[in-house]
Protein 1
Amino acid sequence: MTTPPAPQACDLLLTDIGQLVTLAGPPGPRRGPLDDLPAIADAAVAITGERIAAVGPRAALEAAWRPARRASAGGRLVLPGFVDPHTHLPWVGSREDEFARKLRGETYAQIAATGGGIRATTRAVRAASVEQLAAAARPRLDRMLAHGTTTAEAKSGYGLELAAERRQLEAVALLDRAHPIDLVATNLAAHEVPDERRHDRAGWLRALIDEVLPALRPHAEFCDVFCEAHVFSTDESRALLEAARALGYGLKLHADELEPTGGAELAAELGAVSADHLACTGPAGVEALARSGTVAVLLPGTSFYLRLREHAPARRLIAAGVPVALATDLNPGSSLTESMPMILTLACLNLGMTPAEALVGATVNAAHAVGRGHDRGRLEPGLLADLVEWDAPSWRYLPSHFGVSLVARVWKRGRPVWARSGAEVPA
Ligand SMILES: [Zn+2]
């Protein structure tokens, strides 16, 4: 006769999980079409410190673990916290006047010509302190958390001069320390050519390579470039990103958003961690990404908000084996939303993704798109205990219910950090 092993100690046992989707699996991003996700009914999660100790059926975990504390998920759905891998978080000001002008038929170019668009935000950001930038961004992070996001990428790119770009990245660092959401900083100084350099593009490009990218390296893990016909050409983008790579940045690229420019091919060629937008990417770009390790980050909120006819070729990317992630593109002009659940709905309705592919895109693959696939995006022993309880009967239900947040409670690094009224963790 053998005696069962003695239960191990853990800090917390979260039980009464109606349905648990761990997205456990191989370490790399997920590729290929996906219709179903394994789910565990009547599940539990054991947590020690910031990390997951075990996941599985409640009965098995009750037998194997002796928790210091317990919490009930009340029969709710539990998923890994969402990772939002593309946001322009640190800005000040608002541009609702442009929303109305667009509704009256004005184009982006017309609005830009009268000082609107990115230019308007740049004027406001240049006048703002680090503290003002952080204060403006903080409620956005609160809304992200309340919509199930526990890690987000945050780009600079509205300063368009060294000092203001640095203040944006300092605000990101300040918020990363002060707010439960983990932030991944990206230098997007190459977002646009600033007004005062309009007749000296070459000078701005030189300044970016010689001064701005080196000076901001300590403040940002990734470097991103807006590669578009009217902003930075493919050759200019290659020069910028090669310089960034030599400085030790990971690479990202705003690619083929408005016109096919070969941005996807460039991202693949340079080994970028992600190629983002891709609304106009053609077959050659899809093939190049499929042969690379680059994650395609699709932003269906942007095409929705700008009422664009072109949508990213999600089905062709998935069929070719490109890992696809989803992001809000949170910014004041072309996608003003913090809601990843809304993005999941748009990915299903407008990009033709399945609910399973959309969920993978917001968790596992999104984590890989910001270089965090090793420690989040899945619920497995050893990974961060970033998990969200949803007022939903099943994972398939989530994208079918849009425009509201169904989040009941959010756990970040093993601690309860947000709850709707009535779902607070009992003291
Ligand atoms: Zn963007």
Note: The pocket of zinc ion is lined by residues 86, 88, 254, 329 (CB under 6 Å).
Protein 2
Amino acid sequence: MPPKPQILILGQQGQVAWELQRTLPLLGNTTVLGSQDLDLADTKKLRDTIQTLRPQIVVNAAAYTAVDKAESDRDNAKAINHTAPQLLAEETAKLGSLLVHYSTDYVFDGTKTGAYVENDATNPLGVYGATKLGGEQAIQAVGGDHLIFRTTWVYGTRGKNFLLTILRLAAEKPELKIVADQIGAPTWSRSIAAATAQVIGQWPQKPSSGLYHLSAAGVTSWHGFANKIVDLSRQIDPDRTLAVDKILPIPATDYPTPAARPSNSQLDSSKLWQTFGVQLNNWERDLDLAMQPASY
Ligand SMILES: NC(=O)c1ccc[n+]([C@@H]2O[C@H](COP(=O)([O-])OP(=O)(O)OC[C@H]3O[C@@H](n4cnc5c(N)ncnc54)[C@H](OP(=O)(O)O)[C@@H]3O)[C@@H](O)[C@H]2O)c1
């Protein structure tokens, strides 16, 4: 039996990184570094860390994810989302190691009808999407072993996300107004981590470097997502008192944000299925699982 690989996980407290810390120890010996251990903007320390630890696999789940703040903080967003993945790609390539990285539907402008495939034309609407696209392209240009998973509408039982925001607002307010003209598939961070482990588990027997869409199946709007969260909350815990009575659909134009969002965030994940036999659940099924008390 070959020795277990050394796996470095970056992004300790993040939604996806947190779940990776539960799944990846099954595959190898994991080391986890958060921003307090390694600031990804510190380019020298980043290179030194990879060369000192010499991991066979680096899973980068750290990112500058503050989409609106990025509009006025381009340099920092670029340092974390573009330059750091480029350096990770360079250092892992030197070692002959695998770099696993996450990207986003925000590389697209959302004008396509139907789900985006990996080689659809990109056209980010904001700084976050542009810097994430820069990171993808830099990793591909370096040309070492890599897997880039573009995911979308990530939520989980910890961190900052739509599920936890709606649960909080529904407990406080009788009426919520939620955007109904942006569509996508809410994707559970735990399912992203499980799928990542399933793919890494096939490495290096099935080396297929490249870019893959990794999204829950099905489609809804933010308004549909909010309705489902409230319905499930009432179903799962009938004793919980929610103040909310009405969830009103609004257009995105009634909820202006510094960064524009794509109106269509659907990602077609069939390449992942065809290459690795990995597929995520329908978003409603996963949301039900995520909201069960046992998932917290
Ligand atoms: N959230 C979404 O809806 C969404 C959608 C599509 C794609 N994605 C992508 O999926 C991946 C995972 O996202 P997520 O939702 O799990 O992110 P998240 O919960 O926002 O976590 C991001 C992590 O990055 C770390 N980080 C930020 N700046 C850093 C720095 N300078 N140095 C080191 N670490 C730093 C943060 O550390 P601290 O907590 O210590 O600051 C945090 O642990 C990212 O690549 C993201 O772009 C996310």
Note: The longest strand covers residues 98-104.
